[in-house]
Amino acid sequence: MSRRSAREIVLHLIFSHDFLGNTADELLDSRLSGDSFAALAGECELYEQLPAAAQIDYVQDAVKGVIEHAPELDAYIEKYAVGWNVGRLSHITRSVLRLCMYETLYMQIPVAASVNEALELAKKYDSDEAAAFINGVLGAFIKQEVQK
Fold first, then answer.
1. What would the pLDDT profile of 4-22 be if each residue is shown by its tens digit?
2. Per-residue pLDDT tens for 22-58?
3. At residue 148, does pLDDT exceed 80?
4. Helix and strand totals (H; E) in the chain
5. Fewest C-beta atoms under 10 Å: which of 24, 31, 61, 98?
6. Are 5 and 37 in contact, with CB atoms under 8 Å apart?
7. Rounded CA gap, 69 and 74, in Å?
8. Distance (Å, whole) CA 21 – CA 5
9. pLDDT at 34
10. pTM of the model
11. Distance between CA 10 and CA 59 in Å, rounded?
């Protein structure tokens, strides 16, 4: 499984967290298992195989980190999504922004790679307009917070 696929799984998990409100450990235990993947494999090609060990580590670190740092990440979203309240954003847009911001701040993922992947996920799960919005927010965020 590629990092791209693992990132997509992370997006699914943090998106689910918005609705379920369970802990990161509960979410990972229930959804990052062979049984869960087998149940979802028929619906989504992404779940046809469990991630390799390195990708499982990435998924666990990213999910736990995004959930732990959600208030901080949401403050950045509020700051750089001028005129938008985090609560008004779609769950998928908010999840994509949180993931990319977390990766660039805490996981040493190259900024260009993380932003590119965020935009690809937005185009796949949201709209071109959402991708443009995410690009603008991330551009301002990176300019001010990452490239100091």
1. 899 999 999 999 998 888 8
2. 899 999 999 998 899 999 998 899 999 888 888 999 9
3. no
4. 8, 0
5. 61
6. no
7. 9
8. 23
9. 87
10. 0.93
11. 6
- Give Cβ neighbours of residue 52 (< 8 Å, ≥ 6 apart): 1
Q: Looking at domain 69-148, which of 3.30.1360.70, 1.20.1070.10, 1.10.10.60, 1.10.940.10 is its CATH number?
A: 1.10.940.10
* Token couple for 137: 């927010």
Closest alpha carbon to 7 in 107, 136, 85, 86: 107
**Alpha carbon distance 94, 73 (integer Å):** 9
Rounded to whole angstroms, the Cα distance separating 23 from 130 reads 28
Environment class of residue 84 by beta-carbon count within 10 Å: exposed (0-12), middle (13-18) or buried (19+)?
Answer: middle
Whether 105 shows a pLDDT value over 90: the answer reads yes
